[in-house]
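Workshop exercise sheet. Pairs work together: one partner reads the sequence aloud, the other fills in the structure field after running the prediction. Swap roles for the next sheet.
Pair: D.N. / O.F.
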Amino acid sequence: MTPAPQPPDGLLPDVWFTRDLPVLRATARLVDEPKHGGAPYLLGSVVPASGLPKAEVIAAAKALASAGYIEPLTNHAGDIVRITAISAEARRLAGLWPTPQGEWERLLEQLAARAQRAPADVERQRWRAFLDAAAAVGEHDGALLMSALIGGYVPRAR
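Structure field:
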């Protein structure tokens, strides 16, 4: 087996996209399935769900636990044997919960679709103006707005 190429700057190779995120997504799918009723998941169940070898799943589980994304149960030797829960941030990273950036993109897509499908010119112009205004706000401020909406914060009138 050929070792992974080392980045030229001497940093270790990135394992987030190749190992940790697939294990987090597999765990999130298992946790979110209603058939198990929130029961702890054996680490062995995550292996086939992730499609990765057991050794990589174990390494990913340790990394995810140390980052606070999963709540592990360990045996007497300290090995992770079950995953009891995932954090709110893990739900966002896995796609179970919305992110402000993702919701902003969805809003722009909806506005574009409504502008395109509007039955009358006046409606099409209104939706297009709404889309243009939203695009002018920009991605950064748009994500801040969506963050407030997702979190339930609505500024009160003075």
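Discussion prompt: Residues 61 and 70 are 8 Å apart (CA to CA). What would you look at next?
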